[in-house]
Specification:
Elements: H1 3-6, E1 16-19, E2 30-33, E3 47-51, H2 60-72, E4 77-82, H3 91-100, E5 104-108, H4 113-148, H5 152-163, E6 167-171, E7 176-180, H6 188-196, H7 201-209, H8 212-218, E8 223-225, E9 236-243, E10 246-254, H9 262-301, H10 309-317, E11 326-333, H11 341-360, E12 373-379, H12 384-391, E13 396-400, H13 406-420, H14 432-441, H15 445-460, H16 465-477, H17 482-489, H18 493-507, H19 514-533
Parallel strand pairs: 2-3, 3-4, 4-5
Antiparallel strand pairs: 1-5, 6-7, 6-10, 8-9, 9-10, 11-12, 11-13
Length: 535
């Protein structure tokens, strides 16, 4: 019950507020009568103090000090029976009460304090009973929603409808997991959050600079973040979502113009607990799926995969298609081996983020973990750069093999990706093919073979592939002049153009690109050197 509501009761209808009107929304937790010379030790926060003023000091300094002392105890208000020992509250204490927002209430002497305490205490107890009853109802409704919920979205909708507020669930990194919209409660920050799918950097910086981030991370219950109209920020409440002592997410609630009630805060806190249980359950499922995926992918990459009916069924369940081309990727955590506890947790975090990013791209979550590496398969239709953009960090690097198919191809791709690891620098993404040229120029025979095969292998494998390769290399030797090449090969220019178009299509080459031309010329030189070395 608030002071403003207490003044509407029958026993206080004739009472008058003479100072401290700014505090009329203070909550009344109890009503107590104190008529001692020094009442301050006998009062508590939230109490409505009733007094006759019989033992109060009569000098101005003493009365001012008394009001300041009572205000420091955060009373709900002070009710003085008049006119008996005081005609009114002295005018000079009004300033003290107004400054502290402490309501001073003058109560006609003929109203018994017993009547006031009985009526207010009954109202307070009734209200507390209603709060408990409503709390139980909210508890049942949220729990029922959680049991039937397929996702956090159902929980966000249930909470939003219960408290009539806009709600957002985010993970610990600020990514939106679920949201409940409510017209008229979309401030600029929330609009940007939902549009970007995560907390805007400017708002995250604001929370950090104002000290809210640290307070939220340390809190066990709801925390208020005041609004800032100039910055387009409405007042909001945030509830930490924890699993044991780990902060795994945040539940944000827009308060708008009216603060959340105690019941609303209880509902929000209970929803945060349910969200934690939901996230913990999802983690368990993800861990189980990951273990199955780890084992399967390890068997592919290590060449231990046996195409038995059971293995093929598992491959199908994990969405691995042996006829589809994949590149083998490696995320490398640049940390000392063996990994420390922090390094182990960082690797698991990296694997979880990778799995989430692959799902966002519509790719199967075929990943594993090994020492400081996180191997994964990426379909050729997916963008490797988009994976790196989501995971880029100063302590991580990434490489990607050439596309391969089938179990044997995955083993070959893993060997390629591993061979690139010693050349990776922290904070970089370098595909395996980008590292071939430096190794070729350094005289690496394996790199030379792969470099040649990468360029002309698809052409050789086609019908009349040998003729097409010879045509392509002759085109390079002639300086990429059609007429000169046609004369050298003794073919019609149209025939030459057809062969070149066919070769370019098979190897996916842009024959007008200077880099492609350089690679073809280098392949020609390398093949010439190999011919000279043959006995």
């Amino acid at each position: 019950m608030r002071i403003s509501e207490a003044l509407d009761t029958h026993s206080l209808q004739r009472a008058q507020v003479v100072a401290g009107a700014a505090g009329l929304e203070r909550e009344v937790r109890w009503v107590h009568i104190v008529d001692l010379p020094d009442p301050i030790p006998w009062v508590r926060e939230g109490m409505l103090l009733l007094t006759t003023g019989y033992a109060w000091p009569r000098d101005e300094a003493g009365q001012r000090a008394l009001i300041r002392g009572l205000a420091s105890k955060h009373l709900a208000g002070v009710g003085l029976a008049v006119p008996q020992f005081f005609e009114h509250f002295p005018a000079y204490v009004h300033d003290e009460a107004d400054a502290a927002g402490l309501p001073l209430i003058e109560i006609p002497w003929d109203i018994p304090f017993a009547q006031i305490t009985e009526e207010l205490q009954r109202s307070i107890l009734d209200e507390q009973y209603n709060v408990i009853e409503q709390s139980e109802l909210i508890h049942r409704m949220l729990t029922r929603s959680a049991l039937g919920a397929a996702s956090l979205q159902h929980l966000a909708d249930a909470l939003g409808r219960l408290i009539h507020r806009a709600v957002t669930f985010e993970d610990a990194q600020g990514k939106v997991l679920a949201s409940h919209r409510l017209p008229g409660m979309e401030d600029q920050v929330r609009h940007e959050t939902l549009a970007q799918g995560r907390t805007p950097p400017d708002f995250a910086l604001y929370l950090e600079q104002e000290g809210y981030t640290r307070a939220i991370q340390a809190a066990d219950g709801p925390q208020r973040v005041p609004g800032d109209l100039q910055a387009g920020i409405a007042g909001r409440v945030v509830c930490p979502i924890r699993i044991r002592h780990e902060l795994v997410g945040l539940a944000w609630i827009i308060e708008g113009d009216s603060p959340l009630s105690e019941l609303d805060l209880r509902a929000a806190e209970h929803a945060a607990v349910i969200a934690a249980l939901h996230i913990a359950h999802q983690r368990e499922l993800t861990t189980l799926e990951a273990r199955l995926g780890y084992t399967f992918l390890d068997s592919l990459l290590e060449g231990r995969f046996e195409p038995s009916p059971q293995a093929l069924e598992r491959a199908q369940l994990l969405e691995f298609d042996p006829h589809r081309p994949y590149s083998v990727g490696l995320l490398v955590l640049h940390a000392s081996l063996p990994l420390s506890r922090e390094g182990f947790l960082r690797r698991e975090e990296l694997a979880n983020h990778l799995a989430r990013r692959l799902r966002e791209l519509g790719c199967p979550g075929l990943i594993s973990v090994s020492l400081n590496q996180v191997p994964f398969l990426l379909p050729v239709t997916a963008s490797a750069q988009s994976v790196w953009d989501a995971l880029a960090s100063e302590d991580v690097s990434m490489t990607l093999s050439r596309p391969h198919t089938g179990p044997a191809g995955m083993r070959e791709g893993y060997i390629e990706a591993n061979s690139a690891v010693p050349l990776l620098r922290p904070g970089t993404f370098v595909p395996y093919t980008s590292l071939l040229l430096p190794r070729v120029l350094a005289g690496d025979p394996e790199a030379r073979h792969i470099f040649i095969d990468d360029l002309v292998g698809p052409v050789r494998a086609a019908h009349n592939g040998g003729v097409l390769v010879s045509t392509l290399l002759a085109y390079a030797r002639s300086g990429f002049y059609l007429k000169r090449t046609a004369l050298e090969l003794h073919v019609h220019p149209k025939t030459l153009a057809y062969r070149l178009q066919r070769a370019a299509s098979l190897a996916n080459l842009d024959l007008d690109d200077p880099d492609t031309r350089f690679r073809i010329q280098l392949v020609d030189k390398l093949l010439s050197l190999e011919d000279k070395q043959l006995p």
